[in-house]
Design a protein that fits this description.
Elements lengths: L4 E4 L2 E4 L4 E4 L5 E5 L4 E5 L101 H28 L7
Length: about 180
């Protein structure tokens, strides 16, 4: 053993800045520099796995910040407590089947610091149907036609106000001037 390795209680202790090197090509190194610990892999993929499926792998501590300095690919589901993106970063989605934000009407969503809300529903969201009028070609309307026009205008106004309310509540539209 080197003078930089001390054997205590069935353990080999390496001093700071000493490395454990593995592989024929010295492909993997483990070291500690007195402040930070390092795992360096030069060849192939660095696989961190458990021997049994379903056993969790924990990286960091509940109060630790963990940084991925390059591409992170998650092939399964991911549960995140929050995401903060730096400026000029994009969310890029695939183009085959599309993506959803929220998969149930009870899930809450908000934008631009608006309080998250569930998907609204109500009678005012019903589709507006056109009333049949007597003679639109000659622009002669009966009193009954005027009532139908007023009803349609009321329906359109109610729908527009409902859409505005939803957009304001989501934070996608400012509520006042």
């Amino acid at each position: 053993m080197s003078e930089n390795v001390v054997r205590t209680d069935n353990s080999n202790v390496l001093y700071d800045n000493e490395k454990i090197t593995l592989g024929n090509g010295q492909d993997l190194t483990l070291s500690h520099d007195g402040t930070d610990s390092h795992i360096t892999n030069k060849t192939g993929t660095l696989n961190i796995a458990t021997a049994t499926s379903g056993v969790p792998i924990s990286i960091g501590h509940t109060t630790s910040e963990t940084t991925v300095n390059d591409n992170l690919t998650v092939t399964g589901n991911s549960t995140l407590g929050g995401i903060t993106m730096t400026d000029e970063k994009n969310i890029v989605l695939d183009t085959t089947t599309g993506s959803k934000i929220g998969t149930a009407v009870t899930q809450k969503l908000g934008f631009f610091n608006a309080t998250p809300i569930v998907q609204p529903s109500g009678a005012a969201q019903a589709a507006v149907t056109s009333q049949s009028l007597s003679d639109t070609a000659n622009a002669t309307y009966k009193v009954d036609d005027i009532t139908k026009i007023q009803t349609e205008l009321n329906d359109v106004t109610a729908l527009a106000n409902e859409m505005r309310s939803v957009l304001v509540n989501l934070g996608l539209m400012k509520g006042a001037a």
